[in-house]
Amino acid sequence: MRILITIQKNSVAPRFDLTTEVLIALCEGQKVLGKPRTVLMTRPSSEELCALIIKENINTVICNGIEESHLQYLAWKKMRVIDSVVGPYSEALKAVTGGFLRSGTVLPGAKQGDGK
Prior knowledge:
Layout: E1 2-8, E2 11-12, E3 21-28, E4 31-40, H1 46-55, E5 60-62, H2 68-76, E6 80-82, H3 89-98
Parallel strand pairs: 1-5, 5-6
Antiparallel strand pairs: 1-2, 1-3, 3-4
């Protein structure tokens, strides 16, 4: 499974459309294979981010706020989107590989002020 997490500093980015940095990880079962890589985008763009997701053959997208049109587009492309996730992206990665990350999850490491 290839996972993409929208990130801002150490957290899941609050908005999909303003994301300029993503983490891409390859996972098998409950293990992350190798070292996840970070990709910096030239500018925030939902369309460019969606194109990157397709190009990288991502199976699962983890984000916080995402517009309905982009959510529907990714679902149409057969991607699993786990949205409204708040907290550290490292915890989100552990939670998804553990099989218990769901849309709307507020991770234990979330600080007040994180989120949408």
